[in-house]
Design brief:
This protein is mainly alpha-helical and 84 residues long. The protein has one domain (4-83). The protein contains three helices and two strands; from the N terminus they run E-E-H-H-H. The model has no long low-confidence stretch (mean pLDDT 78).
Length: 84
């Protein structure tokens, strides 16, 4: 079974097509853009983890899993993931 993303009722884009388009866009990014996007992604993950932490405290009967925060040294790894 292939993954599909519905754009409109009459149009469906294959997930492979989306990945190809994203790869084409990312191939034009500079190293600074990659690092900037990696930093922004790290910041957003940390904000989400903080919000989920507050949610966990307010609703103890519900279990939420969060990813561990990344160290600042892992930004280069994030940038390489963004590049791929």
């Amino acid at each position: 079974m292939t993954s599909k993303v519905s754009v409109q009722e009459e149009s469906i884009i294959q997930i492979g097509t989306i990945r190809e388009r994203v790869t084409a866009i990312k191939s034009h990014w500079t190293n600074e853009e990659r690092l900037s996007r990696a930093r922004e992604g790290t910041k957003r993950r940390q904000e989400l983890e903080l919000l989920l932490g507050h949610l966990n405290q307010s609703t103890p009967q519900t279990e939420h899993r969060t990813r561990r925060s990344k160290s600042p040294n892992s930004l280069e790894q994030d940038a390489s993931l963004v590049a791929s």
